[in-house]
Structure formats: C-alpha cells, structure tokens
C-alpha cells in the first residue's frame, strides 16, 4: 500500500502537469477580453509573489551567500514561463508544447558546459530522438530547413532551452534554498514581461478594461501558480528521475485533450510521429542524471 509521502509526491507532480497542460486556456480567455499575455503574466506572477511573501525574509537573509546564481536562475526560469505563455497564446498548443519538450536535448549540452557531465549512450540516443522528432514535425520541403514556422513556435522552443538551463543552474547551485529558487522563478517571470509591455505602450490602458471577472481569474491563476510551485518542488525532491519524468509527461495528455475539446486543434500524423520520438527522448533523459530540483512553476 503506498505511503502518505508517496501519495503526496505523485499528487504534486500530477497537479503541476495538470496546471501546465491547461493554463493556456485561462490566458487565452484573458487575451480575448483585451488583456495581453505579457500583462496577464505580470499580474499573475506578482500575485504569486504576494501569496508566497512569507518566504521573502529567508530569501533576503540568504542573498549574500548565493552569489550570481539567483540571477542566472531568474533570467532562465523567468523566460521559461513567459516564453511558454507567449507560445501557447499565439500557436497550436501541442506543437508549442512538443517544441518545449525538446528540453532534454539542451539539458545534455548545458550539463556538459556547466557541470562537466559527459554523454553516455543514453545521451546520444536522446539527442538523436529529439532531433528526429523535431525534423518530422517541422519539415516543410518548400521552406528549406526544418525550423519553427512562426513566433509562437520560436517562443516555445526558446522556453524549452531556458527550462533546460534553469534546471542545470539549479543543480549547479545546490547551496540555494528551495525558497530562493522558487522566488527567483516568480520574480524573473514578472520582470521579463516589463520590456515587452513598455514596447507595447505600457499598461495603463489595459488596466482600465480589467473587470471583476478578469481580476478573479488573474487572482486564481496567481494562487494556483504559487501553490503548484510548492507541490512540485516538494515532489521532485522525493522522487527519482524516471518516475518524475513519466508523471510530468502527463502534461502532454492534459494539453492534447484540452486543446482538442476547447480549441478544436487536431494533430496530424507526422505530429504524432514527432511526438512519439520526443516523448521517447524525454523518458530516456531520466537515465542521464539525478532528479532536477526546479520546475518551471
């Protein structure tokens, strides 16, 4: 019979997968109401910071001992979340998510650069499967090189690169507390929205059109992001890599079902083939190193 701790860890990972498999829908609803993705992201992550404010005193005391690593984590994890949201708002949910899930490929490269980890035979197989899956999905003979086809797909791909970097940075900076890592993610996501909001002309006009219903959605998203962060951080600290990765892949199932039912998106055969290759690479990536201590929440 599974222990209470096992049930909590499984529930934590599944809750994170559920949230990130469905989070595109409320952000799109807010966008349809006139609230841009950057502004919605800024507000929800500021709210997450406020809900998690009890952690800030410890983070403040730790700031001098952490060195420059929180800044690296702030930038990489911040773009992980912001780029993911931008991709989901402008592109097909499953294509963006699968491009994001090329992260194991970039993890191998960053692990070699920052941690000095050498490839084993699983590493070469992960690289081959990831590249193969991307080429099957993206190949258009008339367009030449198999590259993302629009800004949304580039956002999803770059968010996956940032996700890989944030995980490697978190492993490299093992001296950082979970509180510092988590708040760095929130602050980074909020801060990276500011340049785009400034370029779009500021937030004053958009703030005026936010009604009570939209504020309720934004508040619920902020609370959900805050709570999910704790659940996921607790879970990945108590699960081995193979189990965690299998559970995290349930995000693809939640996203596939929700995008079909809520947005009418249907994947083509080559998308399914590419997805199978990328999922296989993700499953094998659990054999490359120890469990990673940060997620994009």
Automatic annotation (TrEMBL):
Residues 13-138, 154-284 form the EamA domain. Keywords: Membrane, Transmembrane, Transmembrane helix. The keyword Transmembrane helix applies. GO terms for cellular component: membrane. The chain crosses the membrane at residues 7-27, 33-56, 68-90, 96-115, 122-139, 151-170, 182-200, 212-232, 244-263. PANTHER family: ACYL-MALONYL CONDENSING ENZYME-RELATED (PTHR22911), SOLUTE CARRIER FAMILY 35 MEMBER G2-RELATED (PTHR22911:SF137). This is EamA domain-containing protein. It comes from Ferrigenium kumadai.
């Amino acid at each position: 019979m599974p222990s209470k701790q096992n049930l909590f860890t499984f529930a934590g990972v599944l809750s994170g997968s559920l949230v990130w498999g469905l989070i595109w829908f409320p952000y799109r609803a807010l966008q349809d109401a006139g609230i841009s993705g950057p502004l919605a992201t800024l507000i929800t992550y500021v709210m997450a910071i406020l809900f998690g404010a009890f952690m800030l005193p410890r983070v403040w005391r730790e700031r001098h001992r952490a060195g420059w690593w929180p800044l690296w984590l702030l930038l990489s994890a911040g773009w992980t979340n912001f780029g993911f949201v931008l991709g989901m708002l402008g592109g097909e949910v499953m294509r963006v998510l699968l491009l994001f899930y090329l992260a194991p490929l970039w993890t191998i490269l960053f692990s070699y650069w920052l941690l000095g980890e050498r490839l084993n035979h699983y590493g070469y197989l992960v690289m081959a499967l990831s590249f193969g899956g991307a080429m099957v999905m993206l190949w258009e003979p008339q367009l030449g090189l198999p590259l993302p086809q629009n800004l949304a797909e580039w956002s999803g791909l770059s968010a996956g690169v940032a996700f890989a970097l944030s995980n490697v940075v978190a492993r490299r900076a093992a001296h950082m507390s979970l509180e510092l890592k988590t708040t760095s993610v929130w602050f980074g996501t909020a801060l990276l929205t500011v340049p785009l909001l400034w370029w779009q002309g500021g937030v004053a006009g958009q703030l005026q059109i936010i009604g009570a219903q939209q504020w309720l959605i934004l508040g619920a998203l902020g609370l959900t992001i805050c709570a999910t962060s704790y659940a996921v951080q607790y879970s990945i600290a108590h699960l081995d890599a193979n189990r965690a990765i299998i559970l995290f892949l349930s995000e693809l199932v939640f996203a596939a079902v929700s995008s079909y039912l809520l947005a009418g998106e249907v994947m083509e055969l080559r998308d399914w083939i590419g997805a199978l290759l990328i999922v296989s690479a993700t499953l094998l990536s659990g054999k490359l190193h120890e469990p990673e201590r940060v997620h994009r929440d």
